[in-house]
Specification:
This protein is mostly helical. The longest helix is centred in the middle third of the chain and has 150 residues. The chain is rod-shaped, with a radius of gyration of 63 Å. It starts with a helix and ends with a helix.
């Protein structure tokens, strides 16, 4: 029985030794390369994620600058458009003022010409009226003379 126990202890110790040896062998053959690959993978993944985050931040910043530039360009365009509109309104007001002044001058000129024509017409009418009056007076007087001569 003692031999059986010693044999069992040797078997147990041998099994433990083989187990430890298998663990060591697995550690160097399987686990260490596996953990190395997993750590490398993790390091690369983190590196890629960090690079992706930096790239994303870079493009976000560029997008903000681009949008800011677009905003500035729009504001400049609006300012330019407003300035052009104000200049156009100013030119329009000047043109209207000049046209109004021209129209007033033409109206005054037309009134003056009309006044002159009225004055000439009055003179002509007075002259014509005198001539007609003289003609009528002469005709009436000649008639009276003819009537008196007939009576005589």
């Amino acid at each position: 029985m003692e031999q059986f126990n010693a044999y069992n202890i040797v078997l147990v110790l041998l099994t433990i030794a083989l187990f430890v040896l298998t663990l060591l062998a697995l550690r160097f053959i399987l686990f260490k390369p596996l953990f190395t690959v997993m750590e490398e993978r993790h390091r690369r993944t983190e590196g890629v994620m960090a690079e992706a985050t930096r790239t994303l931040d870079y493009y976000k910043e560029r997008l903000e600058r681009y949008q800011g530039a677009i905003r500035e360009a729009r504001m400049a365009a609006y300012r330019h458009q407003e300035q052009a509109r104000a200049e156009a309104l100013s030119r329009r007001a000047e043109i209207i003022a000049r046209a109004r002044e021209q129209a007033e001058r033409e109206i005054e000129q037309a009134k003056a010409e009309l006044s002159q024509q009225v004055a000439r017409a009055k003179v002509a009418l007075e002259r014509d009226a005198r001539e007609i009056a003289e003609a009528i007076t002469l005709a009436v007087l000649q008639r009276e003379l003819s009537a008196r001569e007939e009576r005589l």
